[in-house]
Design brief:
Two copies of one chain form a homodimer. The longest helix of chain A is centred in the middle third of the chain and has 19 residues, at 57-75. Chain A has a five-stranded parallel beta sheet, sandwiched between helices. Helices cover 42% and strands 13% of the residues of chain A. The first copy, chain A, has helices spanning 19-32, 42-48, 57-75, 90-100, 113-119, 124-129, 160-173; strands at 8-12, 38-41, 81-84, 104-110, 151-154. With 185 residues, chain A is an alpha/beta fold. The interface between A and B is medium-sized, with 16 and 16 residues.
């Protein structure tokens, strides 16, 4: 069994940018290699840790701090974590980075509001543009892009598989995940 | 290195019964054996996951469900966890047991209200009896003792070290922790 090295792939990006899609591919690949992994998706966390919180800056910050608290607990015990919440505010992401040190790997899942709105997988942008959803990141609420993320996934140009492959390559290079077995290459 | 087996020592008992004291001894012993361990103390969790929640039944339940969510995440990834919150309601503890299956080990830290109030380590019982603290478990709020805990620590009769030793012996018997090295016996 490989050494267990905890880390947190901290996805950040607009709704519809591709965070969940890419995280699912990376999760599958890690499991295929016999690695542990936990995905802390925005919706899962809101349900289990943050019910009752809204989308004001204060409530968003609290939600993200809770995700960081749990990601830290897991990753410092050797468990790979993927967080896939919008996490729009730079300051709170930087707090998470400070807590986790070099276990924190920031992944900017980048796509413009226009492209995300075109995709509109959950139909949320339409409602946001009509004003039916308030405080919607990128429309009526700010998104602060990370200035120095470890990795950028340009999902307007890259397919999700390409973005995922880039992340896997990064993790391999840092020797944070087991190598793929020769037979499967 | 020993196999890593996740489990949750789920302490339950009144304020002042000895949960934190015993958990600290067990934590130290596990670390001395090279085992991982995370302690989710009531106060730590309220600070990091449940700020803003009060002590109504509903808020207590939410707090305990969050502890269970995190304990499950850790223990299913091979990390030993100790939770040390009062967790007064049977139904929610049973939910946690259902989620974690045989990883869930209920530890009833047992002492009467009278004895806990005599100890009154944090001065809380005095305030509760005067009515300065509302909804205080055992005084003005219910405590539902577990009918079938895996382990009972009778802290009116046992020293904290004895209680801790009982827990360690139980974990050894179930082969959930590394044996103590011969040299240290």
């Amino acid at each position: 069994m490989a050494d267990e090295k905890g880390f947190t792939l901290w996805f950040t990006g607009l709704s519809g940018a591709g965070k969940t899609t890419i995280s699912e591919i990376v999760e599958r690949e890690l499991r295929a290699r016999g690695s542990k992994v936990e995905v802390l998706d925005g919706d899962v966390v809101r349900e289990n840790l943050s019910k009752g919180l809204g989308f004001s800056k204060e409530d968003r910050d609290t939600n993200i701090r809770r995700i960081a608290f749990v990601a830290d607990l897991l990753s410092r015990n050797g468990v790979p974590v993927i967080t896939a919440a919008i996490s729009p505010y730079r300051e709170i992401r930087d707090e998470a980075r400070e807590t986790m040190g070099d276990r924190f790997i920031e992944v900017f899942v980048k796509a413009s509001v226009e492209v995300c709105a075109e995709r509109d997988v959950k139909g949320l942008y339409e409602k946001a543009f009509k004003g039916e959803i308030k405080e919607f990141t990128g429309v009526s609420d700010p998104y602060e892009a990370p200035p120095n993320p470890e990795i950028v996934c340009h999902t307007e140009q890259e397919a999700p598989e390409e973005s995922a492959q880039k992340l896997i390559a990064y993790l391999e290079e840092r020797e944070l995940i087991p190598a793929r077995e020769a037979a499967t290459v």
